[in-house]
Here is the input.
Amino acid sequence: MSLRGKTLFITGASRGIGLAIGLRAAKDGANVAIIAKTAEPNPKLPGTIFSAAKEIEEAGGKALPIQCDIRFEEQVAAAVAKTVETFGGIDILVNNASAISLTPTESTDMKRYDLMHGINTRGTFLCSKHCVPHLKKAAAAGGNAHVLNLSPPLNMETKWFAPHVAYTMAKFGMSMCVLGMAGEFKRDGVAFNALWPRTTIATAAIKNLLGGEQAMKGSRDPRIMGDAAYAIFTKNSREVTGNFFIDDEVLAAEGKTDLSEYNMVPGAALLPDFFVDPKKG
Here is the structure.
């Protein structure tokens, strides 16, 4: 199965994991709507919707850069309408945009709390709500309609909540959308799945907020998430839904077990990501 001619609506696609997913789809000749806030270059956050569009097109896809803050419904509705007007529909939604603040309860500023919940949980629900009518049309026409949330398995363990309750709630809200909407739209043939990395991924968040250059060295390249997402998108949406996938397990099921090519530093010890235990053996 190929993504040639399929249209992806990807939030947070100007850099990192969102861009990696778009680039992998672009290799097939997919259309990619790049939904993100960054339109002007920022030295701390490399990549804009326009630089991402250039990369998508150089990779073989068609790009539509749209500046959009997914906290605002009118902006999301306009972005969805523009995507449909440009490409004729939407086949895949990737809810990747996210905000993070690993603070304990007493030191969590409520503006930061609202930002995380506004982008992570509410933004995911909002984008899903506006894309679903078009995804249902794609499925009804015999297409392969997918929604993929970049969110963790619902491991309801104290150790994942206690250090940063607000952030965990916001990310698990995205996962609850998977759990509920997979059931809600199963009859329509629209798949809802989650994807999460086993290890940290070399993104701006890791570099700027979660450990700097040292943490980057113990991370994997975002390409692993692009390849894992592609493997999910090319499965039958009527058969593969309601799953909480981990990147290395997805690739192992495809026959790829040597993941060394994704290491930012060959042979470096990899750092486990939140919400999943390190792989044993």
Remarks:
- The beta strands are 7-11, 31-36, 62-67, 92-95, 145-149, 190-196, 244-246.
- The chain has one domain: 7-262.
- The chain is about 45% helix and 15% strand.
